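[Backbone geometry]
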Amino acid sequence: MPPGAATPTPRSGWSRAATGLPLIALAVWSRVWLGWAALIPCVLVALWLWLNPRLFPAPRRFDGWMARGVLGERILVSFPDAIPVAHRRMARLLALAGLPGALVFAAGLWTLRLDWVVLGGALAALPKFWFIDRMGWLLADWRAAGRSEWEAP
């Protein structure tokens, strides 16, 4: 990996997947108990989500599922014009597929319906996991074409 390059961090990916939506839900739901003071946990969760990718060291190996997904996503973001149309189309489709779940999640938080929060969170997370898997496929195709994930094509 070149010096100064952003490091894919599968630990960050896993910890965000495990804590992101539950912490958001808890912070927003805390308005019931804390009133306007619930802004404090909301800000703390936002800080955690921003800080999380910066906290973890580079992985020793890049062959795990999350590491491959993170590398593939970095390729998608870094070299969008070099990505085959099928991969770009699927990335957009999966991003849009999570939107209904995010809306149900938000509606559940607004109305304090725990069943909607759980259902919406699941419906939002599943396309994200599929997206990560698809980015691993993109990485495999990228490497099969003889490209390095650290250099422009």
